[in-house]
Amino acid sequence: MTSKTFRRIIAATAAIASATLLAACAGGGSSGGGGGGTSGNDLGLPNLKGQTLNVSADWSGAEQKDFEAVLKVFEKATGATVDYKSLGNNVATVLGTQITGGNPPNVSLIPQPGLLKQLAADGSLKTLPSSVTKTVDANYSQTWQDLGKVDGKPYGVWFKGSNKSTVWYNTQLYKNAGIDEPKTWDQFTKDMQTLQDSGVSGLSIGADVGWPLTDWFENVYLRTAGGDMYDKLANHEIPWTDPSVTKALDILKDLWSADYIEPGGAQRSFGDAVTEVFGANPKAATTYEGDFVATNIASDTKTKVGTGAKFYDFPSIDDSPASVVGGGNVAVAFKDDKATMALMKFLAMPEAANAWIPLGGFTSPNQKADTGKYPDATSKQIAQALLSAKVLKFDMSDLAPSAFGGTEGQGEWQILLGFYANPTDVAGVQQKLEAAAAAAYKS
């Protein structure tokens, strides 16, 4: 692979348009896995005893532990050994280095559709055989099938979905302040001030890296600009200097400069923000992020999800309809041997999703996954919100080129960090965002 190709991977282009996602069910059955004889297991997967597969994703900590539990099901069924490595926040960079060095993993679960498209365009990915695609077709709605394709060819299996429009709160602190779950943005901001007046910060934000701030922007923008404009901005068909972006940033300017925000966000990690709300000595009553907050609550605090910790949908702004920003991880294959494709098939099966669902912090886009296995009513609520949203758009920063929307220390991440630290110059921030986006999409 040339250095030019490597740079293209790092700056993956976002040509997959974010489409409105509506709940749909797919039917049919699955075929045998990857050819060859089976191991006698109930999953119909081949005997892979003595073979080792390398797998990577961006999950670490509790999420890594939970995913490794999924891989153990595959190991038990096939006799294979799976070695997992976390890529952290630098998925494109690490994968690019591995590909350039001729040593990519068998399978990686990446969070960026833009990177999926570029890796496929560069010839780094293997197309999926019918043994995998039949399983995908049987278990996923058409929307998720299409999100795994590039130019009509199947490359990905969307193993993990994410509802990134969930606002999490400490139920006791809300009760103490005499407030309920707000439905509108105006009520939300009033409630944050009420919490502040009650003696605890209304909101804790973790902003030591930029990705949580992109999620804030995307949720506000979707509710103020609507789905069509969201698609246009995601594809850079309108500039970041557009008035619709101005409106969203003005709202965030008011929010991020409010006195009900717990101080120190620029040095606080996302995980620390969760602990500040649900730890033994909470400093704030509310935090915003995706459904994976449940994993952090369970692993880092003694608060129980569903009782002491609950969530409500991201508030409506200007009477916007029920809207969800979604995300997830798509499994892609860098090799096309029997073992690799057996693992890809397994990840498309409900049994793989069912292994993680009861552990919490996981939402499956697999239509055949057992919803009865979600560990609590809150987890089911998350999944239902993801499927029932009138408007559901994929995470915009993940659709963008990695140089703009997915790399620590540059692009949207870094620019929004600066805006969070000093939320004053909206026009200047828009100009910086447009310059960075123009350069990334062009390359």
UniProtKB/TrEMBL annotation:
Keywords: Signal, Transport. Belongs to the bacterial solute-binding protein 1 family. The keyword Signal applies. This is Sugar ABC transporter substrate-binding protein. It holds the Pfam family SBP_bac_8. Residues 1-23 form the signal peptide. PROSITE patterns: PROKAR_LIPOPROTEIN (PS51257). InterPro entries: Bact_solute-bd_prot1, SBP. It comes from Pseudolysinimonas kribbensis. Coiled coil: none annotated.
